[in-house]
Write a structure and sequence with these properties.
single chain; alpha/beta; seven-stranded mixed β-sheet; five-stranded mixed β-sheet; 12 strands; 40% helix; binds pyridoxal-5'-phosphate
Length: 403
């Protein structure tokens, strides 16, 4: 089937279609995973193709069912999260959606979710799953008594929380939540996007599944969107793959390549981002224009102990949220507009420092009263600290505050 030695007597219109394709890989192993853009895979005989289709021989047939570049990313994630299976999707939201199906969330089921979830996740649960008769109840996952009581009361099928909450950066006690989940026969799904596997491996703390928006720290360069689910049980993988095959939100090979490339520097980036975030948090903790700095390293002794148990020492994550004393949207916008280095952007975990206004971005859909209830002030600004020289980051924030 090698078309590099394409028959000379063929018409040029035929040659244009086949030339250069289906060449076997020469001896030697590529040191970086190639980008396999091929949608289909052919075999010398139909019998062989049939065996691959049946899963008797490992192989690829169609990229929605599997792709070598995407598989390399999934394998990397299995290693980093200590999972047994991984399934990659075109976005974090697609990954979450698939995870719900894999947990057999069916009409009549209840999901017990953290009240501090990423805004789109809350909306996915309430609108898409809500319309199919799946009920979502929220509770403060940092109040373990409340979580345990609610779980006993409503007998949820699934508990859903984030390792580090958005935007108040509270660290979840995953060990304790896993115990609560087990005591009521529920599964525990952890969104580990804010921590990255470098800082936390939720499966080792008892979670059943881990989800990442690979768009954030894993990719890290603001140029690729993707998502992934990791499982502890092989059986869960079948549900995830099944959803991916039928719903079709597969990760593209180019994105898989970019995210796999991003992962190679994840440790270096996150280490630097955490060091910089610690310096930023300390520097602005007593600032005259700031009423409060949210950062796990500056939390109460008991909260700090949980953060230390969950996150790789000595780190507390790469995010810092600041509350301006002038608690108004205009003040937050004015401060953000004056920044010259820090980028105004709706994401996190990138190489560069970026700022977001939760009240009008991630929590825009919430009623103002609910926002206040959750502690998301109008003057709150979330900073995803980048890898720049920290002096430059601090100087930029200083000048924007002082004007
Ligand atoms: C961004 C994000 C998501 C959604 O991921 P997408 O890749 O944007 O679909 C989910 N959870 C958290 C915590 C996020 O930050």
């Amino acid at each position: 089937m090698n078309m590099t030695d394409i028959k000379n007597e063929l018409d040029i219109r035929t040659k244009m279609v086949h030339a250069g394709e289906r060449r076997p890989v020469p001896n030697g192993v590529p040191t970086a995973m190639p980008v396999y853009t091929s949608v289909t895979y052919t075999y010398d005989s139909m019998a062989e193709m049939d065996r691959v289709f049946a899963g008797e021989t490992p192989g690829y047939v169609y990229t929605r069912y599997g792709n070598p570049t995407t598989a390399a990313f999934e394998d990397a994630m299995i290693t980093l999260e200590a999972g047994v299976g991984a399934c990659a999707y075109s976005s974090g939201m697609a990954a979450l959606h698939a995870a719900m199906f894999a947990c057999e969330i069916s009409p009549g089921a209840t999901i017990l979710a953290s009240q501090d979830l990423y805004g789109a996740t809350t909306n996915l649960l309430n609108t898409v799953f809500g319309s199919y008769g799946i009920k979502t109840l929220t509770v403060d996952f940092n109040d373990l008594k409340a979580v345990a009581n609610k779980a006993q009361e409503v007998r949820p099928r699934l508990l859903l929380a984030e390792t580090i909450s958005n935007p108040l950066l509270k660290v979840c006690d995953i060990d304790a939540c896993a115990e609560i989940a087990r005591s009521v026969g529920a599964r525990l799904l952890i969104d580990n996007t804010f921590a990255s596997p470098f800082l936390c491996q939720p499966l080792l703390h008892g979670a059943d599944m881990v989800m990442h928006s690979a768009t954030k720290y894993l990719s890290g360069h603001a140029d690729a969107m993707g998502g992934v689910i990791l499982t502890r049980e092989p059986a869960d993988l079948q549900g995830l793959i099944g959803t991916m095959k039928l719903v079709g939100g597969v990760l593209g090979a180019w994105e898989a390549h970019l995210i796999l490339r991003g992962i190679k520097t994840l440790g270096l980036r996150v280490e630097r981002q955490c060091e910089n975030a610690a310096r930023v948090a300390e520097h602005f903790a007593d600032h005259s224009k700031i009423s409060r700095v949210h950062y796990p390293g500056l939390s109460s002794p008991s909260e700090k102990a949980v953060a230390r148990r969950m996150l790789r020492e000595p780190h507390f994550g790469g995010l810092v949220s600041i509350e301006l004393k002038e608690d108004l949207q205009e003040s937050a916008f004015r401060f953000m507009d004056r920044l010259q280095l820090c980028v105004r952007a709706t994401s996190l975990g990138d190489l560069f420092t970026e700022v977001l206004h939760p009240a009008t971005a991630s929590h825009r859909e919430l009623a103002p009263a609910r926002r206040r209830q959750l502690g998301i002030a109008d003057g709150l600004v979330r900073i995803s600290v980048g890898i720049e020289a920290v002096e430059d980051i601090i100087a930029d924030i200083e000048q924007a505050l002082s004007q």
